[in-house]
Input
Amino acid sequence: MKIQSFFRRYWLTMLGVILGAGIGYGYYRLVGCPNGTCMITSKPSHSMAYFGVLGGVMIQYFKKNKK
Output
């Protein structure tokens, strides 16, 4: 698969992952976990990964399927 066709096919999903990761970092900075015992929000990398996957899944849910 060529790089250009990959980006054309999955650009919306990648956008959802990037937006989700940004929201995850914002959630870490604004809400976070004050004592460090929360599994997802204790580190920014965990929060960004979790929300990034969630953003990619949510975009795929609302994406129209071509049949």
Summary: DSSP finds two helices and no strands in the chain. The mean pLDDT is 88. Residues 18 and 66 are 24 Å apart (CA to CA).
